[in-house]
Amino acid sequence: MEQTKRQPRKLGWRFALLALALAFVISGVVRSVWLDVYFIPSASMEPLFREGDRIVVSRTDFQAGPVRHGDVVVFDGRGSFAPLNSGKGPVHDFLAAAGRWLGLAGSEDTYVKRVIGLPGDHVVCCDAPGLTVNGQQVAEPYLNAGDAPSVQTFSVTVPAGRLWLMGDHRSMSADSRSLLGAPGGGMVPLDRVVGRPVQIIWPLDRFTAVTRPTAAANTTTNGQ
Questions:
Q1: Which CATH architecture has domain 37-209?
Q2: What is residue 42's predicted lDDT score, i.e. its pLDDT?
Q3: 186-197 pLDDT, tens per residue?
């Protein structure tokens, strides 16, 4: 009689563990195929994103159409923005992965920036009052208030299959400009793009959709 009373409790625990495991599997599939959550660790993309924001990133937006001028992208910076191996050991890597999974920490290898130059573009700053792409000045209403387009001068031609990326808070952003002398010249491979931010989900007072800019009308064709 005592054994029959304990049986439902055992089944309850098993069911709860099974449900939890299934939830993790479903979450893993969703986050690897459709949507993922990222933590913003810095002010480099202000005012669009603030330090501490959590954002939802769509992994499928760019499958429907190519990356465009002005798009905000989340990308894997290994081999371009970040070292190939941090060398901090398996425990550090496990804790970092857990923090990223829960949306509590940023990734040392994953970044969010804005697309300024597409393959074939000639990007220059700053002979004119602002930044130019293919000889045409780019309107940048997204820039952080008080920031110049760039205090660092540069003139680059974006190679095939790569992107020139910059933060919106130019005075606080380490981006393609910072890596001009590095292998790859700060250009990020297109196949390293993870997806596009579509929603700020935390903090709740900043809960809002992240709209995609319309196709830029202030630059010439990108040479593709």
A1: Ribbon (2.10)
A2: 94
A3: 899 999 999 999
